[in-house]
Amino acid sequence: MKKIFFLTALALMLFSCKTSSVTGKKLDKSAQVAVKGNWVLTSVTYPGSQYIKVNSFDIADSKCFEGSTWKFVSNNNKGNMALTNFDCPAFSSPITWFINTDGEFILKVLDAGEKAKRVRAGYILHIANQADDSFQLIDKGSDVAGKSIDVVYQFQRAN
């Protein structure tokens, strides 16, 4: 009898716990609609940028992202991005993204034909200074050369 009571109590404790995952939070629809459209990543800044290199999104050096083109579709949270800097490796990829009510911008870079639900890795950035024609994504606390820094990606609406 004690075992049944103990197992029941244990099961209740396990099932009553809620996740604090970023994917379990409500979406900020108005912020997502404001990001909808075509954008150019105009600059990547961080302290000490003249001395250190940051590998952005595990793809390329952060400076390769300057001038990259991004398309965000808010009704299905899909889009694409492409590196356009001639000094850098050619790269283009579909993406999936969303913004939650905590101001977190969740981004997954996909391989062609790959479903987002099969991709376990992604990036959590913070959206800031959102205006009609610009916004920033901030990678808070990136580990660069053993130091924690903020990497700021500045976006400008494309014409």
Automatic annotation (TrEMBL):
Q: Which UniProt keywords apply?
A: Signal
Q: Where is the signal peptide?
A: 1-21
* InterPro entries per the UniProt record, alphabetical: Lipocalin-like
The residue ranges of the Lipocalin-like domain are 36-109
Q: What is this protein called?
A: Lipocalin-like domain-containing protein
